[in-house]
Amino acid sequence: MAPMQTATMISLALYFILMLGIGLYAWRKSTEDSEGYLLGGRQLHPAVAALSAGASDMSGWLLLGLPGALYLSGLVEAWIGIGLFIGALINWIVVAPRLREQTVQYGNALTIPEFLSNRFPDKAIALRLISAIIIVVFFTVYSAAGLVGGGKLFESTFIDGQVWGLSPYTAGVWLTALVVLAYTMVGGFLAVSLTDFVQGCIMVVALVVMPLVVIMGEGGAGNVASILDGVDPNFLSWFGGLSTIGFLSAIAWGLGYFGQPHIIVRFMAVRDGGIKTARNIGMSWMLVALIGALGVGLAGRAHVVANGLTLEDSETIFILLANTLFHPFVTGFLLAALLAAIMSTISSQLLVSSSSLTEDFYRLFIRDDASEKEMVNIGRICVLLVSLAAIFIASDPDSKVLGLVSNAWAGFGAAFGPLITLSLTWKKMTGAGAVAGLVTGALVVIGWIGLGVGDSTGIYEIIPGFIAAWLAIYVVSKVTAKSMPGTARSAA
To answer: Which residues are listed as membrane-spanning (predicted)?
Structure first.
C-alpha cells in the first residue's frame, strides 16, 4: 500500500476506533432492558436527537447520490433537496410532538408497529405483522445502499491492487458492515444515537470545507459559474429542461419523511419537552448540509472540467475531490465523513429492523414471556441477520446508491407516511383503514417499480403510492366507522 494510502488508512482507523469506543460506552449505560436498548430510555438530549435524526436520514446519498446527480444534470437536481427540507420541517412540526406524546399514551410503545397496534387494537396483530414485514424488507434494501457507498469509497480510494486479499469494493462493503455491526449490536439505540451525533458533526464540517476549497482553487465562484456555463448554458438554471412531472417528482421526496421509521423513532426517544429545541437544531444542520452537498456536485464538475480529469461514476465526485485536493490525513477525515453518512443510516436501519423482528414478531408469536435480557440478545441476533442479507444485495458493484435509496424511501413514505400522519391527527381513523393504507401504499410502490411505470412516465413512485394510501385510509375508515364505533380511541 502506498504511503499516501497508509496515511488515509490511519485516519480511517482512528475514526473506527472512536465509533467502537462510543459503542462500548453505550453498552455500559443503556442495554439492560428493551426500552434502553431500543429507545435509550426516552432520555435523548435534544441536540443528540436532532443530529441523530439528520445523520440517519441523510446517509451516503448526501455525499454520493445528491452531488452525483448535480454533477450530471446541474442545479435542477437541487429541487430534491428543497423538497426534503420542506418535508423534514413539516415532519418536525406535525409528527414529532404528537408521536412523542402518543407513543407513551398508547401503552409506552417502543416501536412504530407496536404503537399502531395499540392505537388500533382491533387490528393489532395484522398491523404489527405487516408493518414488521415492510420494515425488514425495505430496510434491508436501504442498508444495502449504504454498504454500496462503503464499497465505492474503498474502490475509488484504494485502486492499486487488493485490500486484505479482497477487491477494494468487497473490502469496503465488509469493513463498513462489520464496524456498524459491532457498535450497534453492543450499544443499541444509545450507541447509534451518540455515534450519529459525532458523525453528523463530521459530515457538516466536510460539506462546508470541501466546496469552499474547490471554489477558491478554481478562482472563485464567478469563475466556477463560467466553467459550468461552458458545460451547458442551463447547468445553473433551476428549471432548465425540467418538466412539470420532473419537478413534482423531485419535490415529492419530501413526502417520504412522514413514514421513515429510522427517523421518526428519534421523536419517540427525545427527552420530555425537548422537541422544539431538537427541531431548531436539526433543521439548521440540514440546511447547511444540503447547501454543502449542492456545492460539492457543482464545484466538483467545474474542477473536473477545468483540470481535464475523468470521472467514470458521478456518484464518486466527493471521493475524487478528497483524494486529489487534500493531504492524505485530511483525506482520511473527509472519507470518514462519508463513512459517517453511510454508517449512521445503516446502524439506525438495522436497529429499527431488529426492533420489529424482536418486539413485533418474536415476542408476539414465539415467546410472549421472554425476559428483557433475552429480548436484547435476540435483538442483537436480528441485527446480524439483516446485515448479512444487506451484504448479499450490496455485493453487486454496479449498484447505484441513489436508485436503491429512492426505492426504499418511496416504499416507507407511501406505506407509513399517510398512516402515521392520520393516526396522530384524525380521531375517526379505524383499524381497517390503517391496514388498508399500509398495504395499499406498499403494493402500489412495489408494483410501480416492478412494472417499470416510473421509467416510462417519469413519475416518482412515492406520488401514486402516497395518494393511494391516503385515499384507502380515508375511504375504508369512513365505511367501517359506523360498524365499529369508538374503535379509533378505544386504546386510550
So the answer is: 6-27, 48-72, 78-96, 125-149, 169-190, 197-216, 236-259, 280-304, 316-342, 377-395, 401-420, 432-451, 457-476
